[in-house]
Amino acid sequence: MSDIGNKTVTEYIRDYYKSATGAAPDRIEQREFGFGSFASRIAVRHTSFKNERELHSYLVDTAPLHVDYSAAYYKNPDAPMDRKEWLGSELRFDIDAGDIVKLPCRIEHGKEWACEKCLDAAKEEVIKLVENFLVPDFGFSERELEINFSGNRGYHVHIRKESVLSLNKSAREEISNYIFGQEPDYNSFFYTVKIDPRHEKQMGPGPGDGGWRGKVAKAFLDAASSKEDLTSLGIDKVTASWIFKNIVKVREQISQGNWDFVRIPNRESVFGNLLSRQVINQGNRIDKGVTNDPSHLMRLPNTIHGGTGLIAKKVPSLAALEIFDPMKGALAFKTGELRVRADSRYRLAINGREFGPYKNEELELPAYAATYLYLKGLADIISNK
Ligand SMILES: [Zn+2]
Predict the structure, then answer these.
(1) Which residue numbers are catalytic?
(2) From ligand 1's centre to the CA of 212, what distance in Å?
(3) What predicted TM-score, i.e. pTM, was given to this entire model?
(4) Which of 151-160, 188-197, 213-222, 248-257 has the lowest mean pLDDT?
């Protein structure tokens, strides 16, 4: 970090906000805002704006490194906490590649870096969050979810449906525990029913069941339509072929919760695999505070992330998310070149090009790559030409 570096980045941010629109949240006059600087991640908070125009001129005037806004709507958003008068809060989820456990690429590049594979993995978890939980279990429609790239190495999901606004802290905790909690216990899925003194019938989850039970039964039946999928769950080849051959009967029986018909020798480990595929991979460190705390501040979508220089860009739909590449689609500083001294062991893939690794080299880079490396502490900006 250097004076010239900080000044250059600040001017790039200012230029971005001069022409950028679409950062104002709904009910802007009821939101608390916070701002971060080079010195402090949240340097200012308890700020509010009457309308989009006020926010926009503030962004152009101060060119802040980080912009955050409250999950909450308040009567007095600029008052101290105890006098804000809470009116409700949106529901938020934070999926970060840094929290995904057992990501093979992290062994190569370490925790501090996010590569394309990290970003893709975070995207997969967001799709799971929406398709496995928010839509089927909580009944939200896709249109009620707002998804945005976090600006660094993950995604945020916001829900502003009337029914979630008044949820208190413990209701929010229940939701995050359900979604991000431990995998349910195998034993809670299966039970036996005595048919006669010598025979017990094995019962289990059916695809019509709610919550986790329906989820695993459906996932099993999905896998049952392909022998490869069945063996990838850890089912031996002979059993997989048998299931595949008898798929009609298997479907019919499992639809009624009858697992007696399907003999899988290592069912406990197969179910373990089925369950781990369903849960959101966010490790134990998941920042549940984001979901649980109704007064949480979070990065404002469509503003600059001061740790990368990328835009925390809104993604219009799940279909758009599938093909979204943040290292192309979230670029803010598209023009100009900067002279830098770079010292980075990473290969930066951005805007369809690759930069680095660099061994303490002086060179000119496009502004988006130079600012990214500068803000990650891997290059110093020497001059803006
Ligand atoms: Zn990676």
Answers:
(1) 94, 96, 287
(2) 30
(3) 0.89
(4) 188-197
